[in-house]
Amino acid sequence: MTQATSGNAVIEVENLVVGYGDRTVLNGITLSVDSGEIRVIMGGSGSGKTTLLRSLLGLKEIASGSIHLLGKKFHYGYPKHMSEVRRQMGVAFQGGALFGSMTVGENIRLPLREHTRLDENTMRIMTRIKLELVNLAGFEDLMPSELSGGMVKRAALARSIILDPKLLFFDEPSAGLDPVTSAELDELILRVRGATRTTIVVVTHELDSALKIADRITVLGKGEVLMTGTVEEIRNSDDSRIQDMLHRRPREEDQDPEDYLRRLTAKRH
Amino acid sequence: MIKYVERFGDYVLYVLEQIGWMATLLFKSLYAFAKPPYDLFAVVRQIHFIGARSLYVILVAGGFTGMVLALQFYNTLERFGSIDLLGSATALALVRELGPVMAALMVIGRAGSAMCAEIGIMRISEQIDALECMAIDPYRYLIAPKIIAGIISVPLLTSVFNVIGILGGYLVGVLIFGLSEGAYFDSMYAGVEWNDVEMGLYKSLVFGLILTWIATAKGYFLHLDRRGAYGAEGVSRTTTDAVVLSSITVLFGDYLIGALML
């Protein structure tokens, strides 16, 4: 599964610190993703993987550190960069985020309509090509409410790749899907990479899916990068937290009795 | 004691913060809309939603308001022996006050709540994030057409409300109480001046802006709500807030514009 990477990073994150109010969620994340790579970001609940994704998408303001996407500085202070980079990236959200007032076809065409001056026929053909790619041929005129969960995710994938992005982000592709549909979606991600050589970042907590599609995996824990490595390297890691994750063992939390009592008796404020 | 002062200060800060977000939304939306390419079709679609689809409610509300006004005025004016003034009294009350206010309240109930809930759900289901990630400006694409459509639709609906209200008054005054048709309309021509119509027009323009602005801003910033807006409960609470706030602002604005223009 491991592939030789070309060596030029399209995503570079350095010392990223992100928080909500006083609470720091990401504490100095540094990572880089090479062009054409499928990088899976894993971690349990509260590990900060969703916050990392939202920071990478420019949806969450960062406290310090830097993010470079496609060689451009990418955060709030640089709206022009953000707009340029965003035209070259696609995002498939966890719930699909399809617009309920539009048909599936209109949803997928929206980026084309907003960013290109193609005529209706060309747009329709391009929409159908992407629908064929995600096995949704013939569903163009249905409303999102008429689709099943897996179909919504595939339609969202089709929308995210309509402009042939250089970067594709995928938030929890397997969440809420049955194992078969989930496996199909994994195949689809591999197929998309095969067809377009897009760099793909997948955020997930599904182990099987991660091991199947990843070139490299970054494991997050409590807002820090525990490890980045190929599937083999992750499997062979002797870090207990990573082994716990691989073998689905519950976390062993070291409990401070005094702290515990203090939490129980603390007044509300 | 200090705790209460702290809480009060905290609340004031929160309100100021909210006003700041709302002002940002308005300016960014209008600025985004003023730049080409102009998406006029989106505005037309919103005019259909806010304006055309509110028409039935406005017709019914306008008719009954005019009828009730005529009923009450007839009763009062009769005591002073001046029922000939019924036409101008009804028309003035409608054109200057009740038309703009009632039409705005009806649109808040019908379209304002719907807009707020729609945008709120788009926020929590990541659809607004999706727009941003597609490099589509949500202010231009989502908010601006609604605000522009509000400014266009509400004055038109107010005019319809006024006309139907005057006809409602005619129904009660002339057809039921037997006042002469000439007296009803003549006193109206004599009593209503351009100033009155102008005041109603300004009011409805401002109300159109206020109600779409508050509804869209409340929905758009749902995720920043201090009490935590999560899922269906968050949307329902925010929609209620939006309806209450925009209704009160309309009533307050009505007084303010009235006081300034008199």
Q: Indicate the low-confidence ranges of chain A by residue numbers.
A: 1-6
- Biggest beta sheet attributes of chain B: none
Rounded to the nearest angstrom, the radius of gyration of chain A is 20 Å
Order of helices and strands of chain B: HHHHHHHHH
Structural class of chain B: mainly alpha
Oligomeric state of this protein: heterodimer
Strand/helix succession of chain A: EEEHEEHEHHHEHEHEEHHH
The tally of strands of chain B reads 0
- What is the general shape of chain A? globular
Residue-averaged pLDDT of chain A: 86
Strand order of the largest sheet of chain A: 6-7-8-3-9-10
Pick out its properties.
heterodimer; A: alpha/beta; four-stranded antiparallel sheet; 10 strands; 37% helix; 24% strand; disordered N terminus; B: mainly alpha; 85% helix
Describe the structure.
Chain A is of the alpha/beta class. Chain A contains 10 helices and 10 strands. Chain B is an all-alpha fold. Helices cover 85% and strands 0% of the residues of chain B. In chain B, helix 6 packs across helix 8. The radius of gyration of chain B is 21 Å and the shape is elongated. The mean pLDDT of chain B is 91. Chains A and B meet through helix 2, strand 6 and helix 3 of A and helix 5 of B.
Summarize this entry quickly.
Chain A is of the alpha/beta class and 269 residues long.
SSE blueprint and pairings:
The complex is a heterodimer of chains A (269) and B (262).
Chain A: E1 9-20, E2 23-34, E3 38-42, H1 49-56, E4 64-69, E5 72-73, H2 79-86, E6 89-92, H3 104-115, H4 120-133, H5 149-160, E7 167-171, H6 179-196, E8 199-204, H7 207-213, E9 216-221, E10 224-230, H8 231-235, H9 240-246, H10 257-265
Chain B: H1 2-34, H2 40-50, H3 55-79, H4 86-124, H5 127-133, H6 138-176, H7 181-191, H8 194-220, H9 231-261
Helix pairs in contact in B: 1-6, 1-8, 2-6, 3-4, 3-6, 4-6, 4-7, 4-8, 4-9, 6-8, 8-9
